Amino acid sequence: MKKIMVTGSAGQIGSELTMLLRELYGNTNVVACGRKTKPSEKLLNSGPFEIVDCTEGGKLAAVVKKYRVDVIYHLAAILSAVAEAKPALAWNVNINGLYNVLEVAREYNCAVFTPSSIGAFGPSTPADHTPQDTIQRPNTMYGVTKVAGELLCDYYFKRFGVDTRGLRYPGIISNETLPGGGTTDYAVDIYYEAIRNKKYTCFLKAGTFLDMMYMPDALKAAVDLMEADPSRLVHRNAFNVTSMSVDPEMIAAEIRKHIPEFKMEYDIDPVRQAIADSWPNNMDDSAARKEWGWAFEYDLTRMTEDMLQVLGKKLK
Ligand code: SER
């Protein structure tokens, strides 16, 4: 059975991916790693946990050695809005952290999953049906680190044969752990506020279209890609994947089908609006479909039903 390590295991994706991997590969075979955010009791009690700061290569290597890890899901990263506020931190975590992971993977022969993002695109990228292979000139620190990360992962595969794979995630919508400082966070907050207060003040303008995905599809995509037949993979490290392209009004309208009195107001955050405006409206994910069979299960309607049901119970 595979031995797996998850960095950033207390984060939005990590907290749920770790639990899924434990279900699939066995609790003791999945070591969760985190820096300082306290993981949930569920995560702590279901399998091994280690404190690891990915900017320290030595500790990463020690954990890989201790558990004889052969696959690393490297989720520790700084999101777009925080990266604009703290560019040096974003560089250190997103670039030096990834570099350390790749070095350890090279030395101990591990496969590596690394998420890239819609943030790897910029204002000169075609915004509609954004092709898999296209112009990538992002103008945010987050985007710079994501493009460099894609290239670095490709390099480690070509140069050293490290089995690197990755996805360009859109905004991920979930109900377990909140995202920490991203531009797409509104699409999560809106559901929490719809349940709590029946109203939401949105920091992006109406008409700002971005790709989004519900967490179960995001998790499935990661696992399916890591299990895919390598001989079919042409792109490896930066597959466009999406489930829906939506703007704030579309989510609000879908919520109103369940909570008719839901009200939406706008108070635009210029920093996050500028970031969102530089990202695609909708990506073409045909390469992922062709090379490893990507398909989503949740569209806006199904996701909204599930989000409101889960949060309705959780926030009672
Ligand atoms: N969700 C991320 C962010 O908004 C995009 O990858 O920063």
Give the tags:
single chain; 316 residues; alpha/beta; Rossmann fold; UDP-galactose 4-epimerase, domain 1; 2 domains; 7-stranded parallel sheet; 3-stranded mixed sheet; 14 strands; 17% strand; binds serine
What is the fourth-level CATH superfamily of the largest domain?
Answer: NAD(P)-binding Rossmann-like Domain
What are the segments in which pLDDT stays under 50 over at least 5 consecutive residues?
A: none
Largest sheet: 7 strands, parallel
- Classified by CATH, the class of the largest domain is Alpha Beta
| CATH architectural type of the largest domain | 3-Layer(aba) Sandwich
Shape: globular
Bound molecules: serine
| Termini separation | 40 Å
| Strand and helix order | EHEHEHEHHEEHEEHEEHEEHEHEHH
Annotation field: number of helices: 12
β-sheet strand percentage:
15-25%
Widest sheet: strand order? 3-2-1-4-5-7-11
Number of domains: 2
**SSE-based structural type:** alpha/beta
Write down the CATH topology of the largest domain: Rossmann fold
What percent of residues adopt helix (DSSP H or I)? 40-55%
The overall strand count is: 14
Radius of gyration: 19 Å
Mean pLDDT score: 97
What is the gist of this entry?
The protein has 316 residues and is α/β, with parallel strands linked by helices.
Task: Show the helix and strand layout.
Blueprint: E1 4-7, H1 12-25, E2 30-34, H2 41-46, E3 49-51, H3 57-66, E4 71-74, H4 80-85, H5 87-108, E5 111-117, E6 128-130, H6 141-160, E7 164-169, E8 171-173, H7 186-197, E9 199-202, E10 210-214, H8 215-227, E11 239-240, E12 244-246, H9 248-256, E13 263-266, H10 270-277, E14 282-283, H11 286-292, H12 300-314
Parallel strand pairs: 1-2, 1-4, 2-3, 4-5, 5-7, 6-14, 7-11, 8-10, 9-13
Antiparallel strand pairs: 10-12
Helix pairs in contact: 1-8, 3-5, 5-6, 7-9, 7-12
Bound molecules: serine (SER).
